[in-house]
Write the structure tokens for this entry.
Amino acid sequence: QTKLKAKAEDPYPDWEQGAEVPYAALCTTFSLIEMTSKRLEITEHCSLFLRQILRLTPDDLLPTILLMINKLAPDYAGIELGIGESLIMKAIGETTGRSLQVIKGDQKEIGDLGLVAVKSRSKQGTMFKPKALTVRGVHKGLMDIATVSGNGAQGRKVDGIKKLLASADVHSAGKADINKDKGGPSEAKFIVRFLEGKLRLGLAEKTVLVSIAQAMIIHEIEKKGQVPDTTDMEKAESMLKTVYSELPSWDAIVPAMLKNGIMKLNESCKLQPGVPLKPMLAKPTKAITEVLDRFENQAFTCEYKYDGERAQIHYVAKDHANKYIDGVPDAAKEAAKGVASIFSRNSEDLSKKYPDILSKLHTWVKDDTKSFVLDCETVAWDVEEKKVLPFQQLMTRKKKDVKIEDVKVKVCVFAFDLLFFNGEAIVKKSLRERRELLHKAFTPVEGEFTFATHMDGQELEEIQVFLDESVKASCEGLMVKMLDGSESGYEPSKRSRNWLKIKKDYLSGVGDSLDLVVLGAYYGKGKRTSVYGAFVLACYNSNTETYETVCNIGTGFSEQVLEELHTVLSETVIDRPKPFYSHSAGGQHQPDVWFEPRYVWEVKTADLTLSPRYKAGCQEGVDPSGQKGISLRFPRFIKIRDDKKPDEATSSRQVAEMYRKQESVAKNKGPSVDDDF
Ligand code: ATP
């Protein structure tokens, strides 16, 4: 067999067929990507590199993809690095023999830990050369860091980082002059950025997905001696997008794709119990008339919008259990008389939070229901009064390792959709058909399991009455959904026009609350001197991977909440804002402390306005001068959103959409005033 060598156009020259992919090669690609903000160029760099891997070392495709999307495993595997800035600084210091104080000083000056690592390394003399890093090795090293537990875990995490950093940059990246002022293709820089959770390359997962599809199809067609055209590319992209939306697990997709080719992916990779799919989401509306306009001449249905926690329940009966993918906690298997898991809105495994649901599940399932994936809301339930309790009650439940006998807050499951039933994905069926199957598959049990209350009337008055009833029943308002035809299919991971939400509280406001990331705080005054009195919040721009400030907030907190927030937030204080925070610099606009981006809060606002002080939506073209961002007027804290990660916060684009909608409604009413905090 002749050994394949890299081709002239390959991004990285030095590796031979079958050899592990050098980590330096990935960093070279990252560096090329970092030099451009053009999506097409980013995709091109990414897919060229993936093609080189496909030709030379296809076995390394999976770890490469994971490192590109800044993940170690699928979300449902629950693998988190659990590392803050201080541990990384300690590791950089100890690897390079520089004191923590010096590292902290550099961080204060440079503000980018990745570049601090680069600077620290370049000062270090090399006594001996450790082995060069490979993609597989870095993935394993990071995985080891993430899975360390027990006594002394922090120390061992630091050791793990040190091991990686000590081997970083010993192998010349070949193109070290690329992007020099941003630290070049330094391995240490990208390891540190991975640890921080943001590569900041503008390399969103959907761009990586498109690059994978392109690389695969070009590779396959060229292997046959043919030339791929744009239709081939489009077909491959569409195939990968559909398959990934139903089975969001590269661990499952990559081996299947390498084995049978990309165009056969849908034969073996389908929605299946055990792998949570990203839920379908709704668009906000401000008035019932807006709903009627949207669904003109099309049948729709209204359902109560329950105020609890979204849950996706996966189940396979015992006699079919071999069909379940994996990752099921043992407790869940025992309890459900089948195999089952419960996943959160962001695909985290909630099985250990809801053993009470799992233990009763089989009593709601009809005998001939053998497997399903159910979309539902778990809601706190008042056993005496037999009614729904507010969301705050649900929040008081323990989050992990709950024992059934200790459960104080009972929950009732309100099911509103069925996505998989008896061995078959049914997401493409109409909502009317799915609902029929849902009602046939289960038996409601009062206070434990029932179907979302719905009403199919299409008249404005009927909807108004139903909305009032939903609020009386302690719900947030209504979900209005397309009922028939292909548009009523379940669209995983989409915020779709075919699902609208009407929240009672926001009918006259901006149509929805926002979920924002806490970036900083001001010390309190008067009664609040021992706690933080106000906070800086931001939305998320996934294109630039930055958090853009959107308001200061000091309203809606009880004294007790402020104390609790002070306790948890003080643990995440950092010396200066992260380089991926977009905020006004200097002066009175600086908060007293900055935090790691960790917590998401739901916030209500009177309306939105433009302000030079904030950065939200600056790149969305809302202000022609590009100087002003969008800000919230009279923001009010509602609750902590434990079920959202910072990068799932309200996006800059959504904020801009809300602003534009408000402006078009308010046209001719004069400009809105800038109301600074
Ligand atoms: P929020 O929950 O704050 O409205 P979100 O971003 O979590 O925002 P949305 O798509 O905006 O999600 O609203 C839909 C949410 O409402 C679902 O995630 C689910 O948790 C909840 N929900 C309650 N009742 C229903 C229902 N009948 N159908 C669909 N979702 C429902």
Q: What stands out?
A: The longest helix spans residues 205-223.
